Amino acid sequence: MSDTFKRLERAELDARLPLERILAAVRFNQDGLIPAIAQQHDSGEVLMMAWMNREALEETLASGRVCYWSRSRGKLWRKGESSGQQQHLRAASLDCDGDTLLLQVEQNGPACHTGRRSCFYVALEGEEARITSEPLIDPDTLYGKPSKEG
């Protein structure tokens, strides 16, 4: 854990630090990425998990429109650029170790490339896996063809 995040363990309520100092201490993995969990800001529903590099994180914080790093495409991926199902940032938080992001978002339509509201629709129950939701929109309608990422 970085010294910055170790010191934050004892920080007082409402203490303020320069954003650049925190971003410099973020613990990106060996590929320069950090997991980002998107959660609907008003309901608490967990929508998806994707990856961000520093550029995607900085763009998201500056623009308010959520941007991820697409590992399959090898480039920045602005959520909804092909489907129209954008995410708008309401709040962003780092965990105590500085290695995971929680994004509070306003999700327009489905978050998942399957057309479902959430990517977390496969419930593991005992000896079975159960599908817990139906697509809101047919994925072919969203993308015109099958896709790997939403």
TrEMBL record:
Keyword Translocase on this protein? no
Q: Which reaction does it catalyse?
A: 1-(5-phospho-beta-D-ribosyl)-ATP + H2O = 1-(5-phospho-beta-D-ribosyl)-5'-AMP + diphosphate + H(+); 1-(5-phospho-beta-D-ribosyl)-5'-AMP + H2O = 1-(5-phospho-beta-D-ribosyl)-5-[(5-phospho-beta-D-ribosylamino)methylideneamino]imidazole-4-carboxamide
Q: What is its EC number?
A: 3.5.4.19
Segments forming domain Phosphoribosyl-AMP cyclohydrolase: 48-121
Q: What is its main location?
A: cytoplasm
Q: Which cofactor does it need?
A: Zn(2+); Mg(2+)
Amino-acid positions noted as binding Zn(2+) in the UniProt annotation, renumbered to this chain: 96, 112, 119
Pathway stated in the Swiss-Prot or TrEMBL entry: Amino-acid biosynthesis; L-histidine biosynthesis; L-histidine from 5-phospho-alpha-D-ribose 1-diphosphate: step 2/9; Amino-acid biosynthesis; L-histidine biosynthesis; L-histidine from 5-phospho-alpha-D-ribose 1-diphosphate: step 3/9
Where in or outside the cell it occurs: the entry states:
Cytoplasm
Q: Which domain of life is it from?
A: Bacteria
Question: One GO CC annotation, please?
Answer: cytoplasm
One Pfam family from the record: PRA-CH
The first-level EC class reads: hydrolase
Single GO term (MF): phosphoribosyl-ATP diphosphatase activity
Cofactor annotation remark: Binds 1 zinc ion per subunit. Binds 1 Mg(2+) ion per subunit.
Chain sites annotated for binding Mg(2+)? 95, 97, 99
Report quaternary structure and partners. Answer: Homodimer.
Q: Which HAMAP family match?
A: HisI
Q: Which family does it belong to?
A: Belongs to the PRA-CH family. In the C-terminal section; belongs to the PRA-PH family.
This molecule's function is given as:
Catalyzes the hydrolysis of the adenine ring of phosphoribosyl-AMP.
What name does the UniProt record give this protein? Phosphoribosyl-AMP cyclohydrolase
Query: In which organism is this protein found?
Result: Billgrantia desiderata
